């Protein structure tokens, strides 16, 4: 039965009810009409449509589950905390390797400056040694370039996570709220784990002078 | 013909440490007339400033102008097109070397490199010294 036929049949039924009872229709008759409409509809859903419906329903379940899993990996934390921290640490590595390389180069240049004052044999040995040190200092450039690639990769990840958070932000917050506080990472068994912060960034680090003063103040 | 060790050499790299290393290696090889630039556009400006350079040793990966772009500009410039140009770079893929060759690079050194490689490549471009 197509839609037009169904509408005609429904209209005939309503006309019959109206003719027999007027406009005051008992609830039982209304229920009977609703049942008839539902029967007509279910008769119209083909096996193919039912399959599509089932697949849509399964898809909805997958989407719900995916949202829950995305919320559990805390994209907000990845965006706001982990990625910026990782990028800062990498920048600090580049900076410290550059400082180290320049310290080495300063020392080598000092050695080169005294070469004219030593014997030719010693001068040649020193020249060969300093040349080898210059060659070894290539590492700073390569390390810097490799780390820059990693930083760029982190930026790409950050952009994707931002997109994810923008797309699902409200729903993620909803899931997080329903889950309560996030699971704490596995505890470090060392009793001084809370003091193991690793090297500090130069701007946050205490100088030796500051530490000496602090020690002195502690008596 | 002997290589003029007083020739002006332009070294180009965005890592100041690398500029310092190359400068010192060149000094050890007997070349003392060295200028530095930190990217291709700065180098191009220096090359067009009126000074006569005998060699360019350039990194590839720099901003805003890369070493390859610098090389293309040099080769397209009537006054600079025959200037010896050595690329010193960490870019070691075949496609990079091909692109540099097609752009007219005189020689190509892959980082990390040693003084002997630098001397050999310079000799192949300038003649023995």
How does this model look, in words?
The complex is a heterodimer of chains A (219) and B (129). Chain A contains seven helices and no strands. Chain A is mostly helical and 219 residues long. Chain A folds into two domains: 44 residues; 133 residues. The longest helix of chain A has 42 residues. Helix content of chain A is 79%, strand content 0%. The model of chain B has no long low-confidence stretch (mean pLDDT 93). Chain B is globular. The N and C termini of chain B lie close together (10 Å). A five-stranded parallel β-sheet of chain B has the order 2-1-3-4-5, sandwiched between helices. In chain B, helix 2 packs parallel to helix 3. The chains are: A mainly alpha (219), B alpha/beta (129). At the A-B interface, helix 4, helix 5 and helix 6 of A face helix 1 of B.
What is the fold's blueprint, element by element?
The complex is a heterodimer of chains A (about 220) and B (about 130).
Chain A lengths: L2 H19 L5 H18 L2 H26 L2 H40 L5 H17 L1 H42 L28 H11 L1
Helix pairs in contact in A: 1-2, 3-6, 4-5, 4-6
Chain B lengths: L7 E5 L3 H13 L5 E4 L2 H8 L5 E6 L8 H10 L8 E5 L4 H10 L3 E4 L4 H12 L3
Parallel strand pairs in B: 1-2, 1-3, 3-4, 4-5
Helix pairs in contact in B: 2-3
